[in-house]
Design goal:
alpha/beta, binds glutamine, 41% helix, 13% strand, globular, 16 helices, eleven-stranded mixed sheet
């Protein structure tokens, strides 16, 4: 395979094949990918920072290993983009916020270390909603991202830049973060694969905290296979994160190639209300396709789903108000001077945070305050347990749950910015995955008549990513034929 014109359609396997057969060097690939990203970025604003020095240095190591017959990592030479809430040593990490505009982290996230160890080339840091709070990428302090499939539309959020980079073809794979849907929803809006692993499957060390009990790191890719490869590299216990799990990591590639026939799929009936008719028809067609592959389909119920939005926006804002207390003008970059310490805090936070972040800090502080804690925060945690139990009970009867990702495809930039509640409602189908901690993903399943991508959501039991990939891979491959 030659490099010319192929950058936007490369896969991990194609990169490997090209490098090992000397069709191109990692240096050539890095240079092309960077040039392409630089040329394409003005269209979408997907990247906040490009990292030519880092990518070229990593490429030189890969070329050296190939020349000397050394270890060639599973991601050798693969152009990778990283959401700007994941820290990269020596490379600016802004979280899409003015308050961290000039922040240069002194260390790498564990996921970043693991990917670079396998030879990945980080070509840049991607735009996102400020501190990952949003569903449209319009809350970034550095301007919105445009959906590469329809430039007047949002790419989804909060990992909009990471989804757009893969959809646009400037990166082969990317990392995002998901607290309430921020990987699956943008994957669905941009027509790429997005995976939210089991909570604790991937270390959160170096993921700037939004709501710690809900935050996940996960991959975006153009194929299920590539997403599985990235997860294989970043999954597994890490001493640096006390919530990272010891559960063994399956061999995803081997297991996902098994046929899908015989898998029991549940359709949670609560997820099929309120769907736009077009999205409903596309998702229905995907379900019928799974049936043709030999899956057994039945209806199930997750009765507490209706409480997910309220429950999530209490827990997430509570944790955010605590996590964001650290941006005080003393540590981390910007400070707005004032006569007293309290005024300095106030002015720094007033100037550094955007409107949505402030709204969440206020909501979170309120639900945690004396007198309201039991009524709101504690109650929300109890509801969260019920939502998790819904999943456990459903998984006694079926292996997989399948549902839409979002009630509608990508909306227009500006369409929902003035109505935070309408924006929050776009998360109805994704929040339960994070609240319960089960693995879930979005796999492309069609396009609306306007050419807007629609994703199919797949959920499995805690730590059973292998079955999730098996369903998604079989679906993707048989559809492509
Ligand atoms: N849209 C949700 C929110 O605004 C989810 C964000 C996320 O998953 N990071 O909080």
């Amino acid at each position: 395979m030659s490099l010319s014109d192929n950058i936007p359609s490369l896969t991990i396997a194609a990169v490997r094949e090209g490098l090992l057969n000397k069709h191109f060097s990692a240096k050539e690939l890095a240079e092309r990918a960077l040039k392409y990203a630089e040329a394409e970025n003005p269209k979408t604003n997907a990247y906040l920072t490009l990292a030519p020095e880092r990518a070229l240095a990593a490429a030189a190591k890969v070329d050296d290993a190939i020349a000397k017959g050394g270890y060639v990592g599973v991601l050798a030479g693969v152009p990778l983009a990283v959401k700007d809430v994941i820290v990269t040593k020596g490379l600016r990490t802004t979280c899409g916020s003015r308050i961290l505009e000039h922040y240069i982290p002194p260390y790498n996230a564990t996921a970043v270390d693991r990917l670079e160890h396998e030879g990945a080339l980080i070509i840049g840091k991607t735009n996102c909603d400020e501190f990952a709070m949003g569903s449209s990428n319009e809350n970034s302090a550095f301007g919105p991202v445009r959906n590469p499939k329809a430039l007047d539309r949002v790419p989804g959020g909060s990992s909009g830049g990471s989804a757009a980079a893969v959809a646009q073809g400037t990166a082969v794979v990317s990392l995002g973060s998901d607290t309430g849907g921020s990987i699956r929803q943008p994957a669905s809006f941009c027509g790429v694969v997005g995976v939210t692993p089991t909570y604790g499957r991937v270390s959160r060390y170096g993921l700037v905290a939004f709501a710690s009990s809900l935050d996940h790191i996960g991959p975006f890719a153009r194929t299920v296979e590539d997403a599985a490869t990235v997860l294989q590299v970043i999954a597994g216990h890490d001493d640096q994160d006390a919530t990272s799990a010891f559960a063994p990591v399956d061999d995803y590639h081997a297991l996902m190639r098994e046929p899908a026939s015989g898998i029991k799929i549940g359709l949670p009936k609560e997820y099929f209300d309120g769907l736009s008719s077009e999205t409903g028809a596309i998702v229905d067609k995907a379900i019928r396709h799974l049936e043709k592959l030999g899956c057994q389909i039945r209806e199930v119920s997750l009765p507490h789903t209706k409480y997910a939005v309220s429950c999530y926006y209490i827990i997430a804002t509570a944790e955010a108000s605590s996590n964001l207390a650290r941006y005080d003008g003393v540590r981390y970059t910007i400070r707005t001077e004032a006569g007293t310490l309290a005024d300095m805090y106030r002015n720094t936070r007033g100037a550094g945070f955007g409107a949505e972040v402030k709204r969440r800090i206020m909501l979170g502080t309120y639900v945690l305050s004396a007198g309201y804690y039991d009524a709101y925060y504690k109650k929300a945690q109890q509801v969260r347990t019920l939502i998790t139990q819904d999943f456990r009970e459903a998984f006694e009867d079926v292996d997989v749950l399948v549902a839409p990702v979002s009630p509608f495809p990508a909306f227009r930039i500006g369409e929902k910015v003035d109505d935070p509640l309408a924006m929050y409602l776009s998360d109805v189908y994704t929040l339960t995955g994070d609240l319960s901690g089960v693995p879930c993903m979005s796999v492309p399943c069609g396009e609306s008549s306007a050419g807007l991508p629609v994703g199919l959501q797949v959920f499995t039991k805690h730590f059973d990513e292998a079955t999730m990939f098996r369903i998604a891979h079989n679906y993707e491959q048989s559809r492509a034929q």
